[in-house]
Design goal:
There is one protein chain. With about 250 residues, the chain is of the alpha/beta class. It has one domain (about 5-240): Rossmann fold (3-Layer(aba) Sandwich). It is built from 8 helices and 7 strands, in the order E-H-E-H-E-H-E-H-E-H-H-E-H-H-E. The chain has a 7-stranded parallel sheet, with helices on both faces. Helix 4 (about 110-135) links the parallel strand 4 (about 80-85) and strand 5 (about 140-145). It starts with 6 loop residues before the first strand and ends in a 10-residue tail after the last strand.
Amino acid sequence: MKLEGKVALVTGGGRGIGRAIAEAYAREGAKVVVTAARHPAQIEEVASKIGGTALLSDVTKPDEVGRLVETVLSRFDRIDILVNNAARGMKLINESFMTEPMPFWETDADAWRQVIDTNVTGVYLLTRAVVPHMVRRGSGRIINISISQETMKRKGFSPYGPSKAALESMSTIWAQELAGTGITLNVLLPGGATNTGMIPDSFPESQRKGLIDPHVMGPPAVYLASDDAHEVTGQRIVAIEWREAGRT
């Protein structure tokens, strides 16, 4: 029960990586709030399974972000852990991005903005809203979910790849700015293509078997959120390579 008594806010918690982390946190005793901008049935199903709370909120809209944080604080009086997992992927740009990459000049500008707004600005808005509370308490854990550096540079993967490169730059800067506050900020990524809803339905089933299981994110996410990691900040942790001291 490494997270007993702690309150965790996990965005994009209805499926994939967000769901895996929410379930891992609940198993360790945390009170978990899962959010999504759409698909309320998904987050409600997760919340029901783990005994958590489901709240609809679009991280790209400042008013909704403000209401989300106010609601969590009014209900639990604290936010100990923030996992910035909500993201828009390449399916929004090109359904066949895995097999038929699209050059950037053919992408739809509105779809491009949605990806950047969610993956970059959304992380900024929610983190900005949560950090003052954590600073007052003198403690907090922030985990930003990223991707492999190869994916950031892969042909046909813009703006998703560039958005995660921006996320990692922000994370490095913010971790320095939070030094001495009691708040840690780290980046966590699976380490390769992961079997989540971002993979198109057209992706060959034979290749899907080789994708990373999103549940690999659970153990390192628990560690980074725990008191054991109070001195770990500004780090980039790859889940498939991570081993906790004492684990085999």
